[in-house]
Sequence to fold (160 residues):
Amino acid sequence: MAAYRIHVQQKEKVVHSIAAALRTAVTVTLRHEQRKPPLEVTLLLTDDDQLHALNKEYLGIDEPTDVLSFEAGEAMPGMKEDEAYLGDIVISLPMAKRQAKQGGHSLKSELQLLTVHGTLHLLGYDHEEPEEKDRMWWAQASILAQLGAEITGPPEDAEG
Fold:
C-alpha cells in the first residue's frame, strides 16, 4: 500500500515526539485535502539566518520569516514515476519558539500551525486576497482541530 513519505531534517533539533507530531501534521493535511499517496514532502527545521536568506532570495523580503514553502515541479531523482514530490517546507525553529512564547502556547502547537500552513501552500493555497485567506484559514483551523492543537491559526493581525 502506498504511503506518504515525510522527511524531517533538523539543522535546529527538536525532541522526537515533536518531529513525529510534524509528520502527522503533514499527513493529516494531505488527507484533509484528499490527496492520495504516494506523496513526498521534506520539512526542514532551521534557524532565522537561513529563513532570512531564503526570504530575501526568493521573495525579495530582507528579513527573517517563520515558514516558507517551495513547491517541487517534478519528481526527485530516484523516485518512481508514480510518486509525487510536493516540495519543501522550511521553518525557523527560533522564530517558532518566540511566537509560541508570545502567543502563550506550546512550541509543538506553533510548529503544527507552521507545518499545516506550509503544507497548504504546497497544495496551492494562498492568502494574498481576502477570499483566499478565508479559505486557507478555514482549512488550517479545521486541520489543527483534528490534530488537537492548542491553537487553530495565527493571531488575527498576522499576515501570514
Remarks:
- The mean pLDDT is 89.
- The longest strand covers residues 84-92.
- Helices lie at 16-32, 48-59, 93-103, 107-122, 130-147.
